[in-house]
Amino acid sequence: MLTTVVDPVYSDDFACLVAPLPPAIIERTARLVAVIAAHPGLSGKVMKGWKSVNFRHAIAGHVCSVFPHDDRVSLYFEHGRQLDRAEGLLEGDGLRKGRYLRLMPDDDIPVDAIGILLSEAIALFA
């Protein structure tokens, strides 16, 4: 389980997840996972079958997942349809309940907006 900001970077499961990806994607994924892991009440776990890092809250359940791809990193919010659009950050209007934030290798990570979305996602069920 990922319980600190540092754990995702040094986890064997995390290393295996990102090993085939370009260095810029590995770095972006590690930074995004660290930002989410630092949010109070969340615990993360690498899901090998899903090729993601999933984050849960004790009361709210599954909150979000980080999916690294060859050319981008996606932050998927399980109940994203119910969240504020955070100034247009979330995509996926065609999805039934989830929404996602797409980060390209050179994009800044919108730390404050992600924190707000995480808090909002937890508050839906807490």
UniProtKB/TrEMBL annotation:
The record, for InterPro entries, names: YdhG-like
Top-level lineage group = Bacteria
Q: Where is the YdhG-like domain?
A: 28-122
User: Know the name of this protein?
Assistant: DUF1801 domain-containing protein
Q: Which organism is it from?
A: Devosia litorisediminis
